[in-house]
Sequence to fold (156 residues):
Amino acid sequence: MKFLVDRPLGGLAKWLRFCGFDAALVRLAPDKPGIWPPPQPHTHLLTSQAACGRLGRPDLLILAAREPEGQLAEVFRCLDLSPRHLHPLSRCSHCNDPLTPLDRDLVQGRVPEHVFHYHRRFYECPRCHRIYWPGSHIQGIAATLRERLEELAGGG
Fold:
């Protein structure tokens, strides 16, 4: 599944990437539908601009929530997403590229010393070369995702 996310929803795009979804930022101008990407299978356009609704695109979701976590919950609810759809922390949260495993020996000097000694698995973005590892930030992201999924399961 792929998402084309309106630029003002950059925080949502980052959360979708945390979930493992391909989430590219685009400019969706309601007054310029001719420059919108054509509909594609398994691709959804996400915006908070109510004026875009008049275009009648079946691939368009207009989100009401103001904050990224609420928008993420809306997307999950509208598309009936569940944990089986997620591939957490498999994409670069900045570039959107899939992360590739990186040999531990290649990260020495590129990550803080304590990180190198404490962690065994590392991943790299092939575009921006950021290095990722399963640190404490993953627990926070996973907890937020778990909360959102539990809210949806409970009808919240």
